[in-house]
Each structure stands twice: as C-alpha cells, then as structure tokens.
Amino acid sequence: MTFDIKVFNNISEEGLKQFDDSLYTINQTQNPDALLLRSKKLHDMTFSEHTIAISRAGAGTNNIPVDRCTKDGIVVFNTPGANANAVKELVLANLLLSARPILKSAQWVQTITDDNVEEIVEAEKKSFVGTELEGKKLGVIGLGAIGAMVANDAYRLGMEVMGYDPYVSVDTAWNISRRVKRVTDLDELLSTSDYISLHVPLMEKTHHLISTEELKKMAPEAVLLNFSRGELVDNNAVLQALADEEIAGYITDFAEKSLLGHEKITVLPHLGASTEEAEINCARMSVRTLKNYLETGNIKRS
Ligand code: MLT
C-alpha cells in the first residue's frame, strides 16, 4: 500500500526527502491521501474522500478550514515552535531598526558624491541620532513559543518586558524569565509600553484585537509590531491613529495596499518564517508528523 501526498509549493526539499519512495508518491493522483502545504489557502477547496490528513509547515492554521476538516474526519497538523526562532530574530531586528535610523543613514551615505566624505558625514550625523532599547518598555501580547522567546531576549537586551496572555500554559510560564512581568490587565500593557508586539493566533475572538479603542490607550511614542497575522490589527484604525498622532509607528509583516507608502509604517512581505533553518525545521516536522499518522494512526507530533 502506498500513500499519495499532494504537496503545495514552498516546502523545503529537506522535508520531502523523508518520504520513502516505497511507501509514498508525490502529486501522482487527483485523490491524495494527505495534503502538505505552507501558506496556500484551502478554504475554497473540496477535499477528496481519500484525504485523511492535512499537514501545515507553519504554526498558524488559519489558511485551513479546520472546523470543516474536523467534521469530515480530516486531521490537521501544524508545526508550533519550528520557526519560532526565525520570527523572534525578525522582531528583535525590527525593534533595533525602529530605535536607530540604520537603513535611512546607510542609504544617505551611499548618496555622497563629494570626495570629502568624512567631513560631510561628521556634519550630518546629528540628524541620525536614535534611541536605545535598554530601559524601554516592551509589551508582548501572547506568550506562546514566539512571544516567550521575544520576551526573554528583549529582557536580555535590557528592556523592561511585560507579557499578557490569559491562556498561557504552565510550561510556557516557566520558560519566561522571572523578570518578565506578567500582567492580567491588557490596558496596563497598552498604556505603558513603548513597543507592543503581537504574538497571538488569528481566531474569531482575536480578529481586530487592536482597533480604535486599543490604539487610543497607547502612548503617542508607542510603536506597534505585528509579526503574527495581519487581521489581528484594524489597518484603518492604525492609519487614523497615526494621522491623529496617537501612536508613533506600525511595523507589520503583512502587506496590504492601504499601508504602503506611509512614512510611519514599515511593511514586510511575510518574512517571519523565511530563514533556511526555519523552512527546513517546519518541513521536517510537518512531514515526520504526517508520516507518523499515516503509518501508525498516531496523532502525536513528532
Ligand atoms: C506560520 O504560521 O508559522 C507562518 O505563517 C509560516 C510561514 O511563513 O509560512
């Protein structure tokens, strides 16, 4: 007996190598036994009656109709934690980029045509003064694998870190530095943070978690970072808050037309998990878990 797997694009070959040819075929039939994907949206897809599992090489499952799958007996797997380090590093990089005009000043230096570079640089550097992260307050909303790593490392950079997560597990709580202050009142975090970083999954109740009311509670110097899901933030409310100087900036990993070209908004093309290491980790974990299920019926992640 063999299993046919429908593989969508952007799955690392390192993961696919784990499918043993004697037991698996890839993209060979119209009725696959399982689907393996990264960001492909499956909401409009009709699944073959053979399909018994869907494995996502990534943490979020909002691109999969999980309720429908559950009703149809299709098991859905994800890879929590497998790309957490990559996302954490991108968040920390953006905190640093936000505090210091690194990109702007480096671009400016390249435009100098005069031979007297040193003198020009010396005269102009006063316009590129930044701030330090040390002593600044970071509010982390969501203390799962990624949020906990961001909180710990920001603390190591000297930031005062607050974490809010009404659902955090005991295990995760133990992984967070004792110096990360756990708050139970979201308003406290919103109103006292210099930077606020979102690390919650997209669900019905987290859709537009940050909207007009929440933005109004933030400090005028506050910068909001969103490396989780675009829909957690009401973009129109952010544009209004920036126009009214209620917050200082928005950094998001989710491109949307209305956000482009705004001087106080940084938009990245969903790069959080885009490192060689994270792509390999996610692909390996999603394939291992899928194989384990198909071969043994065990739903334990491996
Ligand atoms: C995730 O949910 O972990 C990310 O969306 C992964 C990705 O970028 O594919």
TrEMBL record:
<dbReference type="GO" id="GO:0051287">
    <property type="term" value="F:NAD binding"/>
</dbReference>
<protein>
    <recommendedName>
        <fullName>D-3-phosphoglycerate dehydrogenase</fullName>
        <ecNumber>1.1.1.399</ecNumber>
        <ecNumber>1.1.1.95</ecNumber>
    </recommendedName>
</protein>
<dbReference type="GO" id="GO:0004617">
    <property type="term" value="F:phosphoglycerate dehydrogenase activity"/>
</dbReference>
<keyword id="KW-0560">Oxidoreductase</keyword>
<comment type="pathway">
    <text>Amino-acid biosynthesis; L-serine biosynthesis; L-serine from 3-phospho-D-glycerate: step 1/3.</text>
</comment>
<keyword id="KW-0520">NAD</keyword>
<comment type="similarity">
    <text>Belongs to the D-isomer specific 2-hydroxyacid dehydrogenase family.</text>
</comment>
<comment type="function">
    <text>Catalyzes the reversible oxidation of 3-phospho-D-glycerate to 3-phosphonooxypyruvate, the first step of the phosphorylated L-serine biosynthesis pathway. Also catalyzes the reversible oxidation of 2-hydroxyglutarate to 2-oxoglutarate.</text>
</comment>
